[in-house]
Design brief:
The chain has 20 helices and 4 strands. A two-stranded antiparallel sheet has the order 1-2. The longest helix is centred in the first third of the chain and has 37 residues. It binds arginine.
């Protein structure tokens, strides 16, 4: 380590093991755009406050822009011995413009610098995931629209329960993801305040203008407490929690894709573009993409646990432990981004099998509730009606029949109220259509839900 970085106090170079143990530039290099933006906002403010000359500030800004260009061209030489992204850029600046470069750090510390960079990075990353979620919502709403007339079993306990529409099921996924989107936006809103100017922990003796740098960087305001500003990372806990919940949702969706594309269900076929073969079994078409989405959920949940544990014992204010926040945060955002993209492709290209879904409605007595409802509508207490329906299911099962295959006499044996209108109630389409309540699977309700989500997505595109 050059003695310039640490000042005159140090007589020995950092031990080689300690240097490589503590270097973070291989990970935090991703913060370079935010680091340059933050430095430019800081230096312009220093000049406006007459803490730095206009000439020096211009030189620094010009030097930082040239560093930005050289990084973009892939020509910047990242050096592990300069520890992190901040020191790499500052060292390059001083090499490029001489002494003026050494004035950039006036009234600032890496503690407020890294906290600022991470807030800027995470704010953008949340916006990017929100856009990824919207892209998947578009896929879901299109698929739902195209499959309004595909009936299928709805499940509880993974047992066939009641008939629904495929579109209703797809729209349930959309609702889950739309809440994930909301959680990310909430987190992005709360994180949008500026630590810059809190310096190491206790602010600075220079007459800086923290509101000016906050505004220049698009923050809502400067953080109110300098100790909190440099040491808090709950903005990462919140955003990664939102990602972990999203990943769990994606995993549940993925699990259903795996089930539905199995030969046992065979409700859908995934496109060749999103399945893989087996090296030994020529007939196999494996749903590896949703399996990987399900598997990668562990990484995202792991990132959240990593951050929680890293923070739990830290005294105020900055501690070097905090450097360990970056890898889990970057990995969580990257992973959820990839999962959303791959599911958009896999669901968008999947083909659903209407006949197979309809056929699976025939076994499993999904119309048993209809029998109970039919009686209840005619004044039989629902609990009694439920019992009668159960008896009929038992009889049909014993005789190897479906409920519509039982004769009217069988119904009347169980309850004298039955007449032949019961057979209309047992039609699956009728059963779905009669669930004409807010949030229900009747065609008009699902069509309205699709139109409503389409409207919301359009409004988001327009804003
Ligand atoms: N690389 C460091 C981090 O990510 C930057 C802040 C270092 N501050 C310090 N006092 N050593 O946390």
């Amino acid at each position: 380590m050059s003695d310039k970085a640490w000042g005159g106090r140090f007589e020995k170079e950092l031990d080689a093991i300690a240097a490589s143990f503590s270097a973070s530039v291989d990970v935090d290099v991703r913060l370079w755009p935010q680091d340059i933006d933050g430095s430019i906002a800081h230096v312009r403010m220093l000049a406006d406050q007459n803490i730095l000359s206009k000439q020096d500030a211009d030189k620094i800004v010009d030097g930082l822009e040239r560093i930005r260009a050289s990084i973009e061209r892939g020509e910047f030489d990242w050096d592990e011995s300069k520890e992190d992204v901040h020191m790499n850029i500052e060292a390059a600046l001083t090499t490029a413009i001489g002494d003026a470069g050494g004035r950039l750090h006036t009234g600032r510390s890496r503690n407020d610098q890294v906290a600022t960079d991470m807030r800027l990075w995470t704010r953008q990353a949340c916006a990017d995931i929100v856009a990824d979620i919207d892209a998947l919502l578009e896929v879901l709403v299109d698929k739902a629209d195209g499959h309004l007339d595909f009936l299928m079993p709805g499940y509880t306990h993974l047992q066939r329960a009641q008939p629904i529409r495929l579109a209703h099921h797809l729209m349930a996924w959309a609702e889950m993801l739309d809440r994930d989107r909301g959680r990310l936006l909430d987190a992005a809103k709360r994180m949008n305040e500026s630590p810059l100017g809190s310096a190491a922990l206790a602010g600075t003796t220079f007459p800086i203008d923290r509101d000016a740098t906050a505004k220049a960087l698009g923050f809502d305001h400067a953080m109110r407490n300098s100790l909190d500003a440099v040491s808090s990372r709950d903005f990462l806990l919140e955003s990664v929690s939102a990602l972990a919940i999203c990943a769990v949702h994606l995993s549940r969706v993925a699990e259903e894709l795996v089930l539905w594309s199995s030969q046992e269900f065979a409700f859908m076929q995934m496109s060749d573009a999103f399945t893989t073969g087996s090296s030994i079994m020529p007939q196999k078409k494996n749903p590896d993409m949703p399996e990987l989405v399900r598997g990668k959920t562990g990484r995202v949940v792991g990132s959240l646990v990593n951050l929680l544990v890293m923070l739990k014992g830290l005294p105020l204010t900055y501690n070097r432990d905090l450097q360990e926040d970056k890898a889990p945060v970057f990995d969580a955002f990257d992973t959820v981004h990839d999962c959303l993209a791959v599911l958009s492709g896999a669901i968008g290209s999947a083909k659903f099998d209407k006949d197979r879904m309809a056929a699976s409605l025939q076994a499993g007595f999904l119309d048993a509730t209809e029998v109970a409802d039919w009686l209840a509508l005619r004044g039989v207490p629902f609990r009694d009606a439920h019992h009668v329906s159960g008896k009929l299911v038992q009889r049909a099962a014993r005789e190897g029949k479906t409920l519509p295959e039982l004769p009217l006499e069988a119904y009347q044996d169980e309850h004298e109220a039955f007449d032949d209108t019961i057979f209309y109630a047992l039609d699956m389409e009728t059963a779905v259509e009669r669930r004409d309540v807010v949030g229900g699977p009747a065609r008009g309700r699902v069509a309205a839900a699709i139109a409503e989500l389409r409207g919301r997505l359009q409004a988001r595109r327009d804003s």
